[in-house]
Amino acid sequence: MRGRPSLVTIASNISIALAMAALLVTSVLLSRTVFVFLPVSGGPTAREIHILAAYWAFILAAIHLGLHWSMIMTVTGRLLRVGPPNAIRTAVLRGIAGAIVACGIHGMFVMGIGDRLVGRPSIDFWDFQESTAGFFLHHIAILGVCACAAHYAAVWLRWARGALHIL
């Protein structure tokens, strides 16, 4: 859909920009090699803000992806020369999305995303006993659950807006 961006899209873009700005500022404060010539020190507060901003940037980027999912699927379909919509293909893709959402919800608990998004202090960082692939798969699934939630919320909002015009 071209034209004026929705209020949700604008809010999403501004939120991502603010999270990225926080990451940039705290990166400068935390850097001990690149910006060694600057007389600044971040300390533990900058580190906590940096971690908080990083997790929010991740979640907000996933939401942004979900808000544009219809456009992404349209472009991908054209590039791959996929035919018109097909009920079986749609059901299979929705089933896959459902599995990703289930894995993502599980991953949110395993990775403690809720605590990280509210800035609860944590001393656990990288567990070298855990699988690297598992770490990334959990995060990809978390991205998927946030993107799906945003996509279907946007679909519902468009439907509700249309339904209100009918009434």
Which helices and strands occur, and which strands form pairs?
Blueprint: H1 7-30, H2 43-67, H3 69-79, H4 87-111, H5 113-117, H6 132-166
Structural write-up:
- α1 packs antiparallel against α2 (43-67), α2 (43-67) packs across α6 (132-166) and α4 crosses α6 (132-166).
- The radius of gyration is 20 Å and the shape is globular.
- With 167 residues, the chain is mainly alpha-helical.
- The protein has one domain (7-166).
- The chain is 75% helix and 0% strand.
- The protein has helices at residues 7-30, 43-67, 69-79, 87-111, 113-117, 132-166.
- The mean pLDDT is 87.
Helix percentage range: over 70%
| Series of H and E elements | HHHHHH
**With helices defined by DSSP (H or I, 4 residues minimum), what is the helix count?**
6
The largest sheet is: none
Strand elements, count: 0
What is the number of independent domains?
Answer: 1
Write down the overall mean pLDDT. 87
Query: pLDDT below 50 for ≥5 consecutive residues: which ranges?
Result: none
Portion of residues in beta strands equals: under 5%
Report the structural category.
mainly alpha
Gyration radius, to the nearest Å? 20 Å
Q: Categorize the overall geometry.
A: globular
How far apart the termini lie comes to 24 Å
Highlighted features:
single chain; 167 residues; mainly alpha; 0% strand; globular
